[in-house]
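$ ./design --mode recover --in tokens.txt
reading tokens...
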């Protein structure tokens, strides 16, 4: 499957995915990495892996629709079939949702539907719950509301700090996202044959 990865920040999930792609654990070609933030470290990571890196900001456009139209043009130019969100901190609008129905996947650092939004780890930590986790889901028009593909629980221990919880969540993410993408790419390969 031919995919683009959209990310806004550090890109550790991109790193985990591209590493699995290079080991041929995921039957996926990464056409390019896109970031809505020009300073995002994920763009450096992409270059280090010889993956094309593209960045522009919604601020450069007069509307979100025009921003997404430009992004869609890029996705179509690169013949992208799947869009993988890896720390992309924006709500995906109707332009991309219509173009990629059930073909946009997101990772979120909580057990959805609990703790959606920008601060899933922090909100669970301060929410004093005993368990949180990681969710991988299809994107729909809501905030972290689309159909769930996979979830994994992470315990919040009595002596847990926010930092130790973040580390545990990221460790699960870096294992779970490549595993789920491997399954999706295998199914897709079978379906298009
Ligand atoms: C990840 O924890 C991901 O689950 C989260 O952003 C982080 C990105 O880390 N995404 C969301 O919160 C989406 N609502 P990374 O840039 O190191 O991959």
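writing sequence...
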């Amino acid at each position: 499957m031919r995919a683009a990865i959209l990310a806004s920040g550090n890109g550790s999930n991109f790193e985990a995915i591209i590493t699995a792609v290079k080991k041929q654990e995921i039957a996926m070609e990464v056409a390019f990495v896109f970031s809505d933030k020009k300073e995002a470290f994920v763009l450096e990571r992409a270059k280090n892996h010889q993956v094309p890196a593209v960045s522009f900001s919604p601020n450069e456009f007069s509307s979100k629709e025009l921003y997404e139209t430009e992004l869609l043009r890029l996705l179509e130019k690169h013949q992208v079939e799947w869009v993988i969100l890896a720390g992309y901190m924006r709500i995906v609008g109707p332009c991309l949702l219509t173009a990629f129905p059930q073909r946009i996947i997101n990772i979120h650092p909580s057990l959805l539907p609990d703790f959606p939004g920008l601060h899933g780890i922090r909100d669970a930590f301060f929410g004093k719950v005993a368990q949180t986790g990681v969710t991988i889901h299809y994107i729909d028009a809501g905030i972290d509301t689309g159909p769930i593909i996979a979830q994994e629980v992470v315990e919040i221990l009595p002596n847990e700090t926010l930092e130790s919880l973040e580390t545990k969540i990221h460790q699960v993410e870096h294992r779970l996202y490549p595993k789920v993408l491997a399954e999706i790419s295998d199914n897709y390969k079978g379906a298009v044959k």
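exit 0
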